TrEMBL record:
It comes from the Bacteria. It comes from Caldithrix abyssi DSM 13497. InterPro entries: Ig-like_fold. This is Fibronectin type III domain-containing protein.
Length: 714
């Protein structure tokens, strides 16, 4: 892999990429409703996955089935110590700090990956639409290892050595069970191994006043900003108007072991309306509907932090520092582990303590982007320590990161009510608040904003409830009730008058298995899905089946599906009696299923398109999602298509049996080879008599054939 150093500068919302040494690898956790990507380096730098400016907000997506729900701009992990005699430079530093993020990454010399893998309890299913792979998990769930005893659905395992001699081991757990699918549990083990470089050089020494400093630059959400639909000010995309708050005890019961940082979208001076929740007021090219595009609350809760290397009890005084960091401060770029002055400033930020007032309290009801006179806004941060670590000593820190808030349908209905008032400022409208109170008022008198904001602010309670659930999950060793596994395979086939779904039966061996459910969306996959079929106990179809024919589909529309297995609800310890479902993303299609055209009426009408097929013109054929597709149109409802080379070699046989007049071929031979340029011959043979369903007249006779020639250019 090509090695280069990578640095990103943010100034007034513009990112400049400057050459500097990297070779990072990334992996997704994408089986629950919260999706996020992770770097082999130990933290996720700004635009670090694809290194594109358009990825200013990338990751921590919730609810992930909808487009542009990213809330993360950057992360960082710094490790600092004092009075460090550096074996590399030969100097002694009063403060030594090594870094990954928020803008720097040096996997050759500073944070050096040793191991990075995605472990799964089971692999993701195979999902096909009309014979073609159609699962987002094909590229977002690249499993390296199967462990059937894994307590979570997925775990990222990452080991990184650092120039300071501390080895970082992190495990990140993800669940698809519906009560636990919007948080990720991060377990860090920081061990003084003395390994300081990629060669494995070991320098044993005691490290003093060690601080582990994590930064979280949140920016809810991509949907509202320039890399989404762009109805909010540009600088929301890098967190300029986010509100950052912290609590050091559970507001529900005063538990001092509940320590959380949390963030939401605040007001912005460049928006001439109240930006709380990110309501869609429309643009010149995108219609306004009021929907709340940034109603999410995101944050991180500390579950456990060792008191010391010899005292593994949970320290309620950790993290010791929660002072926010100015996102564009000089300490956030050009970090250098051999620059004494800069490392002293960094260490000071890492040990700044807990502020008397949080960033959100200081902003108050004002515009978050105007606080502090900074173009970048502020980043959440927490420092753990200081610890003294002798050779072989280690510290364990466990965190849970989560996103919660209003349901997507509520974002539409609440936003639409607000938008009605916004569009008619003097109209008297009745608003129902979260506490059940109904108030009549207008946009002009502030009632509409109060209504919208009251609903958005319920996201804080939802986030805290998620935090409590994550804490409980970790304290019970991740032993939560498991949901049934998904079907190992799903096939969706578009026919002439119906769309057929067929799935595997492996889930039926699961204890307390009860049945299957089929959900469907129309037009696009990133929208709400409706339950259109269920089978099993307590349903209108008590018999267990492994297929369903969607006969309500209409020609000309795109349909997307997901299929889940569900149990009898007896193990659901959050909502007892409510069935647990297998994760929706396992058997979700990301390619449309459509009704195919009716069968042809005559062999002379058979066409092959495109003809010629030219790989350089895929955007004029079936698009980049199907670059090698060739279609046979107006064919008999049941026939066999044999494809030959010009010299007569049979390279593929397709059995067409779905009753439609369409069949697709992906230019792959029966020996799994991509065809080369040349002239090809297709022989279409009728394999079953076909009669007109209305007149009874025979249209195709078994054995009849048609021959067509087509050209492929590559």
């Amino acid at each position: 892999m090509m090695m280069k150093k990578y640095t990103v500068y943010t100034l007034l919302g513009l990112i400049m990429l400057v050459t500097s040494v990297f070779a990072d690898e990334s992996k997704w956790l994408a089986v629950g409703m919260l999706h996020d990507w992770f770097s082999s380096a130990g933290a996720e730098i700004e635009v670090g996955r694809r290194h594109l400016i358009s990825d200013q907000q990338d990751g921590l997506r919730w609810p992930a089935q909808f487009r542009y729900q990213d809330t993360k701009a950057a992360k960082a992990l710094w490790i600092g110590t004092t009075n460090y005699q550096d074996p590399i430079s030969g100097q002694t530093y009063e403060y030594k700090v090594v870094h990954v993020g928020p803008r720097v990454l040096d996997e050759e010399n500073e944070f050096m990956p040793v191991e990075f893998k995605l472990v799964a309890r089971f692999d993701h299913p195979q999902v096909f639409v009309d014979g073609f792979p159609a699962s987002p998990l094909d590229y977002m769930d690249e499993v390296d290892e199967i462990d059937p005893d894994l307590p979570a659905d997925r775990m990222i395992y990452n080991v990184v050595n650092t120039q300071i001699g501390i080895t970082v081991t992190r495990r990140i757990y993800a669940f698809s069970q519906q009560n636990h699918d919007n948080y990720l549990i991060h377990e860090y083990i920081f061990k003084n191994t003395g390994i300081i470089d990629k060669k494995g050089t070991k320098v044993e020494k005691t490290l003093t006043d060690v601080v582990f400093f994590l930064q979280y630059r949140y920016a809810p959400t991509r949907e509202i900003g320039p890399y989404g639909y762009y109805w909010a000010p540009q600088s929301t995309s890098w967190g300029h108007s986010t509100m950052n708050d912290a609590v050091y005890a559970d507001p529900l019961n005063g538990n001092p072991l509940f320590r959380a940082l949390f963030t939401w979208l605040g007001r912005h001076s460049k928006a001439d309306y109240d930006l709380i929740g990110g309501p869609n007021i429309g643009t010149n090219t995108y219609g306004g509907d009021g929907r709340l595009g940034a109603a999410q609350y995101c944050g991180v809760v500390t579950i456990h932090a060792d008191k010391g290397p010899n005292d593994k009890t949970n320290d309620p005084n950790q993290p010791t520092s929660t002072q926010v960091v100015e996102s564009d401060a000089d300490i956030t770029y050009n970090n250098d582990p051999f620059n004494p002055a800069k490392m002293a400033k960094e260490y000071a930020a890492m040990t700044a303590g807990r502020p008397a007032q949080s960033h959100a309290e200081l902003v108050g009801d004002g515009n978050a982007d105007e606080y502090g006179n900074t173009p970048g806004g502020f980043t959440q941060a927490q420092g753990f320590g200081p610890y003294d670590l002798a050779p072989g000593d280690s510290i364990r820190i466990v965190l849970a990161e989560a996103v919660a808030g209003l349901r997507r349908d509520s974002c539409y209905t609440i936003g639409a009510r607000w938008f009605e008032a916004y569009s008619n400022p003097s109209r008297q409208i009745k608003f129902r608040f979260p506490n059940g109170q109904v108030s009549e008022g207008t946009y002009s008198d502030g009632t509409a904003d109060a209504y919208k904001n009251a609903w958005v602010y319920t996201g804080k309670d939802s986030l805290f409830k998620t935090f409590r659930r994550a804490i409980d999950t970790y304290n019970r060793s991740l032993d939560i009730p498991l949901n049934p596994p998904p079907p190992e395979q799903l096939k969706v086939i578009g026919g002439g008058d119906r769309i057929i779904l067929e799935w595997a039966n492996n889930a039926e061996n699961w204890p307390n298995f009860a049945g299957y459910r089929v959900y469907r969306a129309i037009h696009v996959p990133d929208t709400t899905y409706d339950l259109i079929f269920e089978c099993g106990a307590g349903t209108d179809h008590p018999e267990i089946v492994n297929s369903f024919e969607d006969q309500t589909a209409q020609r000309g529309f795109d349909y997307y599906y997901y299929v889940v297995a569900f149990d009898d609800g007896s193990t659901n310890d959050v909502h007892f009696g409510v069935p647990l479902e297998s994760g929706r993303f396992y058997c979700m299609t990301n390619q449309p299923a459509v009704l195919k055209r009716a069968a042809g009426r005559s062999l002379k009408d058979i066409r092959i398109v495109p003809n010629p097929f030219n790989i350089r013109a895929i955007d004029m054929q079936f698009g980049y999602s199907a670059p090698d597709r060739i279609k046979f149109l107006n064919i008999p409802p049941v026939c066999r298509i044999k494809i030959y080379t010009e010299r007569g070699d049979l390279i593929e046989t397709i059995e067409h049996t779905d009753g439609s007049g369409d069949e697709a071929w992906n230019s792959i031979t029966s020996s799994r080879q991509v065809v080369v340029s040349g002239l090809y011959i297709a022989v279409i043979e009728v394999t079953q008599d076909y009669f007109d369903p209305e007149t009874g007249e025979i249209i195709f006779r078994k054995g009849e054939t048609a021959i067509r020639k087509f050209v492929i250019i590559r």
